[in-house]
Each structure stands twice: as structure tokens, then as C-alpha cells.
Specification:
The chain is mainly α. It contains 6 helices and no strands.
């Protein structure tokens, strides 16, 4: 066997090894991405569980969220702090979706959580608006679309009431 044949065989073996290495790296990268997505999902679900635990154990907060009358300054501050907590969770959800760390179905279910919160606790809308005003750029996030729709529809209703008063 001549040296040229041995060199050609060596190059062929080297090419196969490179391809096998690339396939292995691709599989490892895919697995690492799957693990990262799983961990992100678990972290976000843990944050939602924290909210549920707070609501489960704090009767006065539940009463405050359901209150129909005007809030005192202390109640407004307490509601603002809770609103800030859930807004931060929602921002984390949007950021995870932007980074493709959660899938679309989970993201849509978490958007539904925003809509449910607004339905269940109407007084929180104003506090959420205050929180969002402190985070430039987040109002364009898809997770806050329900908040913007409510704000716009209540603004339309107020404008209509003002026009009726004239």
C-alpha cells in the first residue's frame, strides 16, 4: 500500500470522525436546550405557586382584592406591592417566551392568568398600571395585551360618559 492511499484513508476517517462529533454536539446541545426549557418552566410555575400560596394563606389580601369600596392609602400600597409582585412574574414569563425558553401553549395559558386576575380582581388594574409605568418598554409585551385592552375600553367608556354628560 502506498502513502497516498494511506493518506486518503486517513482523511476519510478524519471526515467521518468530524461528522460524528458534530452530530454528537448537536444532540448534546438539543438536550441542554430541553433541560434549560424544563428548568425555566419549573421556575415560572414555582413563581405562580408563590402567588397562589400567598393568596391561600393571606385572608386579608383576598378580602382586599375583593373589596368594592374605595381603598385606604395603606390598602392601596398593599395592593400595589402585590400587583408589582405579579407583574414581575408576568414580565419573567414574557422574557422566557422572547428567549424561546417556554413553548407557545404554556405562554398562552399564562396570558390567560393575566386575564383571569383582571376579571377576579378589578381593583388591581390601576395598581398594575402604576407598576407598568415604572417599566419602560414592557407595555408592548404580548402578556400585557389584556391589560391594555381593558385600559382602552375603560377609557372609551369614560369618554362616552363624558360626552353623554355634555
Amino acid at each position: 500500500m502506498n502513502w497516498e492511499a494511506i493518506g486518503a484513508i486517513g482523511e476519510a476517517v478524519g471526515a467521518v470522525v468530524v461528522v460524528a462529533s458534530l452530530v454528537y454536539l448537536a444532540l448534546e446541545l438539543r438536550q441542554a436546550n430541553n433541560i434549560a426549557r424544563f428548568n425555566t418552566t419549573q421556575q415560572l410555575q414555582a413563581r405562580f405557586n408563590e402567588i397562589n400560596a400567598i393568596l391561600l394563606t393571606d385572608q386579608s389580601l383576598r378580602e382586599l382584592l375583593a373589596k368594592k369600596d374605595t381603598l385606604t392609602a395603606d390598602e392601596g400600597e398593599r395592593l400595589y406591592v402585590f400587583a408589582n409582585f405579579i407583574v414581575n412574574v408576568w414580565i419573567s414569563v414574557q422574557e422566557a417566551r422572547n428567549d424561546d425558553q417556554i413553548d407557545e401553549d404554556l405562554f398562552l395559558s399564562m396570558i390567560n392568568d393575566v386575564e383571569v386576575a383582571l376579571e377576579r380582581w378589578p381593583k388591581i388594574q390601576g395598581q398594575i398600571d402604576l407598576c407598568l409605568a415604572r417599566y419602560p418598554g414592557v407595555e408592548g409585551y404580548q402578556i400585557f395585551d389584556a391589560i391594555l385592552r381593558r385600559r382602552n375600553s375603560s377609557g372609551d367608556a369614560k369618554q362616552g360618559a363624558a360626552a353623554d354628560a355634555d
